[in-house]
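Q: I'm writing up a methods section and want to include an example of the input and output format. Could you take the sequence below and give the corresponding predicted structure tokens, formatted cleanly so I can copy it straight into the document?
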Amino acid sequence: MNRHQWWRDAVIYQVYVRSFLDSTGDGVGDLAGVRAGLPYLRKLGVDGIWLSPFYPSPQHDHGYDVADYRGVDPLFGDLDEFDALVTAARRLGIRVLLDIVPNHCSSEHPWFREALASPPGSPARARFHFADGRGPDGAEPPNNWHAMFGGPAWTRVTEADGRPGQWYLHMFTPEQPDWNWREPRVAAEFDRILRFWLDRGVDGFRIDVAAGLFKHPELPDSPDPEADARTRDSVNPLAWNQPEVHEVWRHWRAVCEEYADRDGRERLLVGEVSVPSAREHARYVRPDELHQAFFFDLLGAPWDPDAFRKVISEAMQDIAGTGSTVTWVLNNHDQVRTVTRYGEPATGGSGLGAARARAAALLMLALPGAAYIYQGEELGLPEVVDLPDDVLTDPIFHRTGSRARIRDGCRVPLPWSGQASPFGFTTGDGGAKPWLPQPEYFAEYATDRALADTRSFWHLYRDGLQLRSELPQLGEGTLRWLDTPPGVLAFVRGDGLVCAVNFGTAPTPAPVPGAPLLSSDGPCPPGVLPGATAAWWIADL
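A: Here is the clean output for your methods example:
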């Protein structure tokens, strides 16, 4: 069957549900709020949405500690509301992806509670990584691994007789025990979970920690045990990126293909894959594995034309060479927002960081492949860097005592309207304030103001998405680099769509004559590309 592979050049909008829109007045966003916001997303022009976890959870890591993979936490609604959301999205032509968390679950998951109540060596404990400790009386952890969110990766349990017992592995927090994917019952359970949601009409899955799942079978000591905690990345080669994980993705791909063969509608698997190189990344998107995997190198690149050109070239060579397409991102729920990352002090609405973020957005939307937009990115929201300690919820802060790389600042609820908090995010009928406080300056980023201002971030994204859908040169395909002056990066798409970025602060001659089709700095003088600006031209090259 010849199916339309919509995902190859799709633009997907990441919805962090608890911060998108609150319909109940409890201060937390919910699925009904997402449904109410669908017309806004349709107007923006995205092809689909990725929903952060909304499953029943104690919320120790905001839903990435899943207690029930087949339900909806009452905080966010219920299954009927989820079904209504999928129906409404389909009516508007918006696809729906779910965030699935196969590396770990909640310590409140029934299977883990059963494991705690069962003896060492039991089938219940085999679903997780339980091991005897080292040293006198097993008082030391089984190995020297550290958790990504700080502290040891092992926690000791108290056995049924009250004595200190075995240890269990958790590569994030003690409330998130890692599954043991060498146990066949774990794979079989996730097969059932996939089918449960596919039967409810979802269009695919964003896979959390997709390079995880399998650990080295002998659980040996690491030569650099604090690497994960130091980098906040999955770099321990004994805990991540084990070769057996590829068989899981081959099976999941086959499940998705089964559903696509049934109705001709492609389901997407996009993985959160943190690996050392684009070449290693490419192994996850071979034709029979994941359809796509997020390419984080552009997100992590410094504001420098040589750095951008290097990561783009490597991605096009190694990832697009597999037959997949690159999945570009500049922001997500775990990273400092671009406006701040590129130099904005996060206290107002203009500045160098904002100009660079606008330019980077236009560059990303011109690249071959797919793109993911994180909610608020289209508003130019900066990182909220001055949240007081007593409102921080990120487990990284509570486990390390450090604010370094904490993620609350990019998760502050969206401003929709008005001049004061809650900025239309919540009705306030429930008497609750937004779950994280919104700064006063969010007023100038509210969506009602953004839609009314044709020079806003929102209009830049909307115009870019509209042109991307209309121009045959954009979307899937290849690019060709152009020779440019120092500090400028330019490439041509198809038969003459040129994208150029001036990384400097001073104007420079444009790489092609004439006024641009679209510029991140608004109308530009013909033949000139201002500093920290990107622009698109149609040219005869």
